[in-house]
Amino acid sequence: MITKTYEPGSGIGKTGQTLREFGERQNVMNQKLNEQYEALHMRCEVLAEHLGDALARIAELEAALTALQKEQELNIRRFSRCAADLDRAEAEIDRLRLTSKLNTNAIDRLTKGGAPEEDDAEET
Fold first, then answer.
1. How many Cα atoms occupy the beta-carbon half-sphere of 11 within 13 Å?
2. HEC string of the chain?
3. Is the pLDDT confidence value at 122 over 60?
């Protein structure tokens, strides 16, 4: 980038001298502004590179998060199936307990009901 905007030339009297001083100050300011611009430009390039790296990392994390969400959904479905199986098993155990209790009571009734008849048979 061209930073020199003033080229010294001849002028008339004090006007020439003042113009020359102003031009030289302007050239110095242009040089400083150019240096700042270059530094900012380099910083922007570095930041753009960091931004690219950050975006790539974000994409990786999003992919990992999606995979974890799918795995979690699968685990929830598996857990739901296990819970349903457990509910069915508990219901079956309750049914078997009731059946066993009813059978035991029936056997007791039959046994107790049959015993007095045997006692009556022995007395005769």
1. 14
2. CCCCCCCCCCCCHHHHHHHHHHHHHHHHHHHHHHHHHHHHHHHHHHHHHHHHHHHHHHHHHHHHHHHHHHHHHHHHHHHHHHHHHHHHHHHHHHHHHHHHHHHHHHHHHHHHHHHHHHHHHHHC
3. no
Residue 35 has which token pair? 């240096």
Q: How far apart are CA 21 and CA 78, in angstroms?
A: 84
Token representation of residue 92: 């079956």
- What would the two tokens of residue 25 be? 């100050």
Tens of pLDDT along 55-85?
999 999 999 999 999 999 999 999 999 999 9
Residue whose structure tokens are 């007791």: 108
pLDDT band at 18 (very low <50, low <70, confident <90, very high): confident
